[in-house]
Amino acid sequence: MSTTLTLRRPDDWHLHLRDGAMLKAVLPETARHFARAIIMPNLVPPVVTGAQAAAYRDRIMAALPDGMAFRPLMTLYMTEDTNPDDVAAAHASGLVTAVKLYPAGATTNSASGVRDFAKVQRVLDRMAEIGMPLCVHGEVTNHDVDIFDREAVFIDRVLDPMRRRTPGLRVVMEHVTTRDGVQYAQAGGPDLGATITTHHLIINRNHILAGGIRPHYYCLPVAKREEHRLALRAAVTSGDPTFFLGTDSAPHVDALKEHSCGCAGCFTATNTMSILAEVFEQEGALDRLESFASLHGPAFYRLPPNEDHITLQKGAPVAYPARIDTGDGPVTVFDPLMPLHWRVA
Ligand code: NCD
Ligand code: ZN
Q: Which ligand sits closest to the CA of 17?
């Protein structure tokens, strides 16, 4: 039984870094292990223009501790007023990698997202023309659709019609949480990718609700039934290049998680690689961790994989901090409810 595993340095294809004191505290947690990340634009106010993306990128680089290397891959937050020429120019200059689509009201800071999809068709057409990826938060927001069904309903009502209307559009289904999402992604051909988070490989909805309410397991899309968690584990270990890592590490201070109306988001940047190694080992698929965490993502985004490597070592359980301190207050690190034996050397 091998006790070390060397892989190309991984990337995180869906990450929330926030801003200010929180950015400064959480960025090293990601940069320690990951070379690049797709940076979510749901700040307040959102990152809508190329100029805002450039300023945010500069704040991220200024927050990076000396001696650490990291490349933020910036995204623009799509609104109903997004201009196709601005998007194309920001992409052509190399400033912006992708556009993020939030249905209005779907999640944290998504109020400026899209209500009427006809209004963004010209942007989608242009993105299809230039091959620029669209990262999609795939949940409907209708109050008459049960929260556990919102992903599956989004595929039928919104995503599939949008892809049919926009031939050639390259789409990433962000953080899929259901067997329905996995199956749709698998059948979607080379222009469709899907990210899967670390925490959705660990928890099902019982972890949030059974025996007491556990706010640190509440995120969006919300964790589903066990059968869906198992479908996600099968997808990530299948070797199918459709699926790649997007942690959706989404820090909120504990005071806002442990609240009468707690924020959605799990903070997994700190221990993600240890958790993934444990999961892939449990599934007998350690040899496929590199493709999921380090190869399939760059291939979809048409970027080279990282040149350097990380080594994971198996040994006595690794002690991660229960929370990290930020200038805004403590942030609880995701508890995977099992000992983690793999550490990044
Ligand atoms: C994210 C956040 O907090 O910004 N929360 C989450 O539960 N994943 C938003 C998102 O990606 O939906
Ligand atoms: Zn997210």
A: 1
